[in-house]
Amino acid sequence: MNKALSYLNRIDIMRMYHFFICLFFLATAIKAPLIKGPIVIIALINLLYYNKKFEKLSVLFYAINFIGSWYMSYYQMANHKSLLGIFSFYMVYRLWFKDKSWNFPFYILSLVIIVATLQKGLSTYFMNGNLIGELFLSGTSFPQIGHLLDSDFSTNAQLFNDRFHDIKYTHQSIALNISDKTVAFSKIFTWFVLISEIILSVAMIVLPRKKKYYALLFFVIGTALFRSEFGFFSILTLISCFDTQIQNTRIQQLLKSLFLILVVIFCYINYTRF
Amino acid sequence: MKLKRLFKISLILMPLIMISWQLYASNLQNLTKWKGCGYGMYTDSHGEYRAIVYRLKNTDSLIQVYPIRKDDYHRLDESSQSIYFKAGKALRVASFYPEWYEKDLKENPWVARFTNQEGNLEIHRTDLDIDNKIARSVKVYSYE
């Protein structure tokens, strides 16, 4: 245990960033090896050898790659990639202009989250409780609470998944074998997601800086395991880890370990999906 | 110093521009809610649950154009597999944005295999309704 904690204390935050970039692009490298391959190699070099100049150029390269992605595949871009792009730009600023005191602006995070939350709140599809169905289907969530509500939760989720995916081939409507408890749970879950996101985005603005990390920690620990946005949550924790104002070792250790867990889950899921 | 300030401002402006564009395109154009930086995730069914079908004229028969099941793919001969594989990305994007990719879709060599009979290309989406415990295939676009 002590060894693990001591490792967490020693792990350099820049290495964590390169580790994420490396694993993130490696997981889906098979889709576009010519574009993603060089990024994986550059991140790997940064992980193994430290060279200040090379690291500065590498981070600039990552950021330029994200500009390319925004331009070339904006209509395909998901939230985690967009936030990683914004964060990479922030990293370019930090490294190239040697501004160690300017920490990631949390109001940007707040804005990103509140826009997504408002769109959810205004959507009939979301408010009807379909989020839980989407989570079943994505195959990336761990809706553990479901098992407490319904002993057949897992079987139902699997059956739901198989039958739903069949429709796009057969074009036949099907009744979904989901218990009333699951439907009721999906309604509660809908409100839980909405309220937790609103609280987080408000907390990112009104709380004093140090308490923002507690808010982020509560949010990620409290909701990450029940949702599928591991990529988004990984970047949230990465942003927190980078903050120079966190002096509390325990908080840093928690954030770092949470980050490592989320990144591994996220990249593994990405790898299995593509 | 000027460059430093410019960079700092652009970092704040960038998300604002992306958010504005996403809100505009997903509400007033046909950008899928899940993409365009993902600010509308879970507010509509995912684009992955879309299919391109060919409806034969005056019948209810639907011929599946995209996607095809793995088993069906493996039953194809090598050259057909290659045509389908190469067409994959274009077909996926076209099923997301049928109005923008009409020409690409109609000229696609894989799609051309189906359009020699009289009929219509259609985009279908699988809709999820947890409340009513039903899932159905809904036509979202037709190239009539």
Share of helix of chain B, binned: 40-55%
Task: Please write the string of helix (H) and strand (E) elements of chain A.
Answer: HHHHHHHHHEHHHH
- Proportion of β residues of chain A? under 5%
Backbone shape of chain B = globular
**Which runs of chain A of at least 5 residues are low in confidence (pLDDT < 50)?**
none
Q: How many domains, in number, for the residues of chain B? A: 2
Q: How many structural domains does the protein architecture of chain A include?
A: 1
Q: What is the arithmetic mean of pLDDT of chain A?
A: 84
Briefly characterize the structure.
Chain A is mainly α. Helices cover 78% and strands 1% of the residues of chain A.
Mind sketching the topology for me?
The complex is a heterodimer of chains A (274) and B (144).
Chain A: H1 2-10, H2 13-27, H3 33-48, H4 52-73, H5 79-96, H6 106-121, H7 124-138, H8 144-149, H9 153-170, E1 174-175, H10 180-206, H11 209-223, H12 230-242, H13 249-273
Chain B: H1 2-28, E1 50-56, E2 62-66, H2 70-75, H3 78-96, H4 102-107, H5 109-112, E3 119-129, E4 134-142
Antiparallel strand pairs in B: 1-2, 1-3, 3-4
